[in-house]
Amino acid sequence: MTVERNYDLSAHNTFRMKVKCACFAEYGSVEELAGLDWDSLPRPLKHIGEGSNLLFTGDFPGTILHSAIRYVKYVDVGLDEVPVIAGAGVRWDDLVAELCGHGLWGAENLSHIPGEVGAAAVQNIGAYGVEIKDIISGVSCYDLVTRKSCKFTVDQCRYGYRESMFKEAGDRYVITSALLRLTRSPRPRLEYKGLSGVDASSPASIRNAVIDIRKSKLPEPSEIGSAGSFFKNPVISASDFVRVCNAATGVSVPHFVLDGGMIKVPAAWLIDQCGFKGEREGGAAVYEKQPLVIVNATGSATPDDVLELERRIVATVHERFGVSLSPEVEHLPK
Ligand SMILES: Cc1cc2nc3c(=O)[nH]c(=O)nc-3n(C[C@H](O)[C@H](O)[C@H](O)COP(=O)(O)OP(=O)(O)OC[C@H]3O[C@@H](n4cnc5c(N)ncnc54)[C@H](O)[C@@H]3O)c2cc1C
User: Fold this and answer.
1) Which atom of ligand 1 is nearest to the CA of 14?
2) pLDDT of residue 240 exceeding 90
3) Number of CB atoms found within 10 A of residue 296's CB
4) Which of 12, 74, 95, 166 has the CA that lies 20 to 30 A from 236?
């Protein structure tokens, strides 16, 4: 167990913001987590993973908790379905690589997503037509209010699009492990455009195709700092959609009609139409290949650079289309 004061978080956020927290506590087991000297830890408490969906807007005044629970257990009783329990601190993509290497199906479309298992279960990560909710059975947690361990089934997690009960509960539950269900029998999911026609002979071949596509579109966190998609895709009414179409002046607006008639419009398209691709603010920039992503272009962007670019994008998209963008990336401190 490590408990350090005035701790540098640069290596704990993929945006590479040079910020500190008053205290950093990393534990290697549920027992170590439960045994922390809670009363001595500065508040607020915030659990993070790899910090790949976070923007630190400044120093964090409280305690950052981090899991180093890093085991993977296979409950193989010879059936088609293979339950796998993974500690929350396992890197998600290391787990996917291992599962694909064993020829187990289910996680391959979720290849190359940054972050750790615990956060993957909080975020309901998704890509290429699959979400973690499709392969998760439940999670084990530590309740910071009752200071007791507890478990939740997948239904109790109440998963939605990048949503879960854990987000609604604030920072009450620390996920300590997740139970996944993989299969030996093939179940390739190739409905998503871009995956049709790929070699689907094994989970590993689909994984390789997914990694190739992702590398061609998204910044590699090891090379350029970012937190992935910065904004949520806005969901608007039919009348607001008409206003967007009018403002688009002759260009057809990509959209997706949801159950109930609301319309989802790609935030990337709105940002691109406002001419932000490649736009810079200090060391921050809108990624050239994907305008939904803000990057730490120089490696020395400050939180204020990112916040100012965010502010300009939100204001311009609102002025031009009347649509309010909201960030997908969580801002800390809030
Ligand atoms: C280049 C890039 C591409 C990306 N592509 C995708 C993608 O395709 N699909 C997708 O869904 N996401 C994507 N993301 C976003 C991000 O990778 C996911 O949201 C990921 O699950 C975050 O994991 P993390 O460990 O970094 O969590 P963090 O960013 O550290 O935390 C995210 C949230 O989870 C909470 N949390 C973390 N660990 C725990 C725990 N053990 N218990 C309780 N709460 C916890 C935190 O408090 C926070 O609220 C991408 C990000 C980047 C940088």
Assistant:
1) 53
2) yes
3) 24
4) 166
Which residue segments constitute the domains of the chain, with CATH numbers given?
2-67 (3.30.43.10), 72-217 (3.30.465.10), 225-332 (3.90.78.10)
Q: Give the C-alpha separation, 112 to 207, whole Å.
A: 8
* Distance, C-alpha 127 to centroid of its chain: 10
Partners of 191 in beta bridges = none
Cβ of 174 less than 6 Å from ligand 1: yes
Q: Is 162 a catalytic residue?
A: yes
In this predicted structure, the answer to whether residue 193 has a pLDDT above a threshold of 90 is: no
pLDDT for position 326 = 96
What is the per-residue pLDDT for 76?
87
Position 334 scores a pLDDT of 82
pTM of the model: 0.97
- In percent, how much of the chain has pLDDT > 90? 96
Q: Which atom of ligand 1 is nearest to the CA of 125?
A: 11
DSSP class of residue 231? B
Q: Among this protein's residues, is 214 annotated catalytic? A: no
Which residue among 93, 113, 162, 295 is best mutated to probe the pocket of ligand 1, counting the most ligand atoms within 8 A of its Cβ?
Answer: 113
Is the C-beta atom of 123 inside 6 A of ligand 1?
A: yes
Q: What is the pLDDT of residue 250?
A: 84
DSSP string, 100-169: HHTT-BSSGGGTT--SBHHHHHHHT-EETTEEGGGTEEEEEEEETTTTEEEEEETTTTT-BTTB-HHHHT
Provide mean pLDDT across the span 278-303. Answer: 98
